[in-house]
DNA sequence: ACAGACTCTGTCCGATCGGTCAGTTACGTT
DNA sequence: AACGTAACTGACCGATCGGACAGAGTCTGT
């Protein structure tokens, strides 16, 4: 018998990925787990806390990747970042899927600064601190190019994951600025 | 003085793009327009109807693009689709931004079959009716490759749009299948 | 047997959601 | 001035949301 917390996280992960954070209610999770809604709030202080916990390992790894990029130049940093992100993605398949699937929710959800700021810092580390959005987009486009190149010849499930990952990167910067 | 319907659509478009469909309440739109919430529902039968109307022209164009692809082979169809999608994107910047920003909402929102089915058909036309998700992903990956190639040498704002568009394509297929 | 901690739930709460409706205002026509 | 219609609104509705809380059930050490 697995622990209750783990079951909740597993159900929440699946439901968040399928319907988004906003589109998943506590009752949905409770029904999926097979317990009461109140039980969720016994194990986790809030709905946000469930999401936070799902993202925690991803956030830590993003920070670790970012740390490695500091001394590198642009192109090299991009390649290193791709390698790191792919490794991260393969290690935390489900969490990363949520991370990317749920970017819309996250962006409307500033209460999760750990992952958000980590991603932000990663972008800065990759393309520099140039304030212009254009520069950052160009940097990400280059990254995505490398990313797509690396993706060839990989088994399909990994490729799907890479698509998701690429999408997340694009998503972060494609967002309208107004 | 512009018409009330146009003002509502404009506000809704901006807010949907910024916060998503789910993240935007009727009261939010009403406040932005400067009228009452009830007034929105006088001009539109429902919140969904506002979204539907925003998507209507995009849906029609997607169908038109799809129609052109039928007699073409894979590679040629992909190039044609990219051209069509870019043209579409540039013509309906705002609507397309919403389309792409809001894909998460749409996928949890089967009440908008016109756009959804049009996109679906477009995918089928591009990569064939192969039932395997892998095949479709591979097709889209190829499309994205062409897409990124085409995107070089374009002014930045257009490029941002292309990033958004690419993201939407990736998004559609990257979605987990469970 | 008892106490205390842990786990879980039924029930309630205030807030907010999309949507309805009766009624008021504004305005062109006669 | 009187009327009809379109535009608009305040008040309200049922449903659902995240969350609070007291209490019941279960387990373990003494």
TrEMBL record, chains A, B:
Keywords: DNA-binding, Transcription, Transcription regulation. One of its GO terms (molecular function) is DNA-binding transcription factor activity. Residues 25-44 bind DNA. The keyword Metal-binding does not apply. Pfam families: TetR_N. SUPFAM superfamilies: Homeodomain-like (SSF46689). InterPro entries: Homeodomain-like_sf, HTH-type_TetR-like_transc_reg, HTH_TetR. Residues 2-62 form the HTH tetR-type domain. This is TetR family transcriptional regulator.
């Amino acid at each position: 018998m697995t622990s209750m917390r783990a079951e909740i996280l597993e159900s929440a992960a699946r439901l968040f990925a399928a319907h988004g954070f906003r589109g998943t209610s506590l009752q949905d999770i409770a029904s999926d787990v097979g317990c009461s809604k109140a039980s969720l709030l016994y194990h986790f202080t809030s709905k946000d806390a469930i999401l936070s916990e799902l993202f925690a390992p991803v956030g830590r790894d993003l920070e670790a990747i970012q740390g490695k990029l500091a001394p590198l130049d642009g192109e090299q940093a991009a390649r290193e970042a791709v390698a790191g992100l792919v490794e991260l993605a393969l290690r935390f398949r489900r969490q990363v899927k949520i991370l990317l699937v749920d970017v819309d929710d996250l962006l409307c959800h500033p209460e999760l600064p750990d992952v958000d700021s980590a991603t932000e810092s990663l972008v800065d580390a990759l393309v520099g601190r140039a304030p212009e959005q254009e520069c950052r987009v160009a940097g990400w486009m280059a990254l995505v190019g490398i990313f797509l190149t690396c993706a060839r010849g990989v088994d399909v499930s990994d490729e799907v994951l890479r698509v998701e990952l690429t999408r997340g990167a694009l998503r972060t910067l494609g967002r309208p600025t107004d």
